[in-house]
Design goal:
By secondary structure, the chain is of the alpha/beta class. Helix content is 33%, strand content 18%. The chain has helices at residues 7-18, 35-47, 65-70, 75-82, 95-98, 118-121, 125-140, 152-164, 194-215, 220-232; strands spanning 2-4, 24-29, 50-55, 89-91, 144-148, 170-174, 237-245, 259-269, 272-282. Strand 8 (259-269) and strand 9 (272-282) form a beta hairpin. The active site is at residue 37.
């Protein structure tokens, strides 16, 4: 495993690797790696010939200087976790390397993503995220980039950017990884006290309750009310939003909506801000229709049927340890 700290070093290593590898995957992180990050790396290792992991605490996406200052930086420990997984290159640039002129004059504007949910509570966050993601895509030039589904709105925004700006990369979302008690893994979990961690379990519990309402055919309004009631029972959880998002646009879905939905939550537990989400569906899932019998009695004129086109396999195959919070209707 090679560690590059400059764009020039990265380009040299990537050029050498490119002579023997056909496909490249990148996993972008801010370090302080946990099992959620490692699950992404394992998926990348299975999907591509070469794996690049970036470690960069991006100041552009922090609207709170204190949050940026205390974000954990553990490069040596991170590299020790990555090497056994077969990572080829770790790109760990400094802020000066990424932004040599200081504040960049040109940034990606996240548009409507700044106006809903995470964009409202973290002003400028998505502009900073999309700017650094685009820059890292340009530097690493991968065929695919893997991100965690825990940051659902971020994944939607990145997919939209790559689609709208014709960035030639496949964006893959890997399932959220959870501890055994249901808490979604996050580098920020280290800031939780024992009591705060117990309180934080209300987030996954609320999502599970809401998901079960939807699984049982209930409407969005009821699912959200049930989830919010779970959160209201825990005084240590200060909720910013508990909402149902369109999984393609991150916009709030209207009453009466039918289809796939992302139920998402953001809350502060003590001084720590946490987010989580679960994929669900409003209304019955579509099933393949049985072929209706033909009404005409005349024989068909064509005698040979063209073979069906083969479907390509999915690129990322590594499962996460857990994909959804446990659903316990009526439980604590």
């Amino acid at each position: 495993m090679h560690v590059a700290h400059t764009a020039a070093e990265l380009a040299e290593l990537a050029a050498l690797a490119g002579k023997k590898h056909k496909t490249r995957a990148v996993v972008m992180t801010m370090g302080a790696l946990h099992e959620g990050h490692l699950a992404l790396v394992r998926a990348a290792r299975q999907a591509a010939d070469e794996v690049v992991v970036t470690i960069f605490v991006n100041p552009l996406q922090f609207n709170d200087p204190a949050d940026l200052e205390r974000y954990p930086r553990t490069l040596d420990a991170d590299c020790a976790l990555l090497e056994p997984l077969g990572v080829d290159i770790v790109f760990a640039p400094s802020v000066d390397e990424m932004y040599p002129s200081g504040e960049p004059l040109v940034r990606v504007n996240a548009g409507g993503f700044n106006e809903v949910f995470e964009g409202v509570f973290r002003p400028g966050h998505f502009d900073g995220v999309l700017t650094v993601v685009l820059k890292l895509l340009n530097l690493t030039r991968p065929d695919m980039a893997l991100f965690g589904q825990k940051d659902a709105q971020q994944v939607i925004a990145i997919k939209a950017m790559c689609r709208d700006l014709s960035v030639p990369v496949e964006i893959i979302a890997n399932p959220t990884v959870r501890d055994a008690d249901g808490l979604a893994l996050s580098s920020r979990n280290v800031f939780l006290s024992a009591d705060e961690r117990t309180d934080a379990l209300a987030l996954s519990r609320a999502l599970g309750e809401a998901e079960q309402v939807l699984d049982e055919g209930g409407p969005i309004t009821l699912a959200l009310a049930v989830g919010r009631a779970v959160l209201a029972e825990v005084p240590g959880v200060d909720v910013e939003y508990f909402a149902a998002l369109d999984p393609d646009t991150a916009q709030s879905v209207p009453d009466g909506y039918r289809g796939d939905v992302t139920v998402a939550v953001a809350a502060r537990v003590g001084a720590t801000r946490l987010i989580d989400n679960v994929a669900a569906r409003v209304g019955p899932r579509e099933v393949a229709r049985a072929t209706a019998p033909a009404t005409a009695t005349a024989p068909a004129t064509a005698t040979a049927t063209a073979p069906a086109t083969a479907t390509a396999p999915a690129t990322a195959t590594a499962p996460a340890t857990a994909t959804a919070p446990k659903k316990k209707r009526g439980g604590a």
